[in-house]
UniProtKB/TrEMBL annotation:
InterPro entries: Glyco_trans_1, Glyco_trans_4-like_N. Keywords: Glycosyltransferase, Transferase. CDD domains: GT4_PimA-like. Pfam families: Glyco_trans_4_4 (PF13579), Glycos_transf_1 (PF00534). Residues 174-336 form the Glycosyl transferase family domain. It comes from Antrihabitans spumae. This is Glycosyltransferase family 4 protein. The keyword tRNA-binding does not apply. GO terms for molecular function: glycosyltransferase activity. Its EC number is 2.4.-.-. Residues 67-160 form the Glycosyltransferase subfamily 4-like N-terminal domain.
């Protein structure tokens, strides 16, 4: 009996970022073996030579799979800019071989990428979406955005997914609340607004605590403008309460999450951040912004949302969560329950299985 096959193409599973995190989660699900998934890496972190070499090797591997191990479905994990062009070439090849294509859009700024692109790139984007067998969007808000680009495309909402964990523990009476930022350090993720808000929050609540005691500590983990963040922390006199780690290996992220009680990710634009889902899955209270696909993940019943760039409201929200143990625990517990109900990887992999079987005919 011939085994059913799926061919996935994405960034390397060792690459930084949410796409790699999502693929790693799915690689641990039954769909990986049920569909004999072969994964092709078309990108990885490194210098231009490494990136070009990775794509060249991935392209050869992809064509080999199409010719000699013909898949039943091709699943392309696509984002903006370079990711789009790499996956569009693979899309054209899969269409040439008449293999059904699932285009899975992950880019936080994919709609802006479309708007800012020249007409020929916009045509290619519409062509990619319209001629996909199905387009996967990360939630209802992204279905609307992608439908505006390609009204005739078949677009379905399938959120990112995680595996629920045991809830984290809250700090003791004399221990600081640990707030974590996890993502690319920069303006889009709201890192510098968070540092400004942190300084304002400590100035506001510091007098409520005994001399020399820091009520909360902030850890900033991620690549990007790390040195700029460190300089701002020092300029604000926050070195005692803020630790800027920079990038950390993916296999250390779960351990870091288990030490925190709050995730702060006040982004200006997002797809559907795996950092938020992973934090919810551990029972952290999430403080973020109502942008992109974030509102498909949390609302006021299981998180805190403040307008992006509003330092005063962000500082007030931080102060509330640091002060109020009950609110922090209640929101974190509700977030974990929401993961179990709506974002459990053991449930969501079955949606891809259903799509594949439909496309297989």
């Amino acid at each position: 009996m011939t085994r059913q096959r799926a061919l996935w193409a994405s960034t390397s599973m060792s690459t930084r970022g949410g796409v790699a995190s999502f693929v790693r989660v799915m690689a641990g699900m039954p769909i990986w073996s049920d569909w004999n998934v072969h994964h092709v890496a078309t990108h990885r972190d490194g210098n231009p030579t490494v990136k070009v070499g990775t794509f060249a090797a991935g392209l050869v591997n992809f064509v080999f799979q199409l010719i000699f191990r013909r898949p039943d479905v091709v699943h392309l994990h696509m984002a903006s800019y370079g990711s789009f062009f790499r996956k569009y070439l693979l899309h054209l090849l899969a269409r040439l071989f008449r293999v059904p294509v699932v285009v899975h859009i992950h880019g936080a700024e994919f709609d802006l990428f479309y708007e800012k692109s020249p007409r020929w790139v916009q045509w290619a984007i519409r062509d990619s979406l319209t001629h996909a067998s199905v387009v996967v969007a990360l939630g209802r808000s992204w279905v609307a955005r992608l439908s505006a680009i390609a009204p005739t495309a078949r677009i379905v909402a399938v959120p990112n997914s995680v595996q629920a964990q045991a809830p984290i523990t809250q700090p003791g009476a004399d221990e600081p609340v640990h707030v974590l930022f996890l993502g690319r350090v920069g303006d889009r993720k709201g890192t510098f607004a968070l540092i400004e808000a942190w300084a304002a929050m400590l100035a506001d609540i510091g007098t409520e605590y005994s001399a020399g005691r820091i009520p909360a500590r902030l850890t900033i983990a991620g690549d990007g403008e790390v040195e700029r963040a460190r300089a701002l922390v020092t300029a604000k006199g926050l070195d005692d309460s803020v630790d800027v780690l920079g990038w950390i290996p993916s296999d250390t992220v779960p351990q870091l999450l288990r030490t925190a009680q709050v995730l702060a990710l006040p982004s200006h634009n997002e797809g559907q951040p795996m950092a938020i889902l992973e934090s919810m899955a551990n029972g952290l209270c999430v403080l973020s912004s109502p942008v992109g696909g974030i509102t498909d993940l949390i609302d006021e019943t299981c998180g805190v949302l403040v307008p992006p760039g509003d330092v005063d409201k962000l500082a007030a929200a931080l102060g509330w969560l640091v002060r109020d143990d009950d609110a922090r625990t209640r929101l974190g517990s509700a977030a974990l329950q929401r993961v179990r109900e709506d974002f459990d990887a053991d449930v969501l992999w079955r949606k891809f299985d259903e799509l594949y079987r439909e496309l297989q005919g």
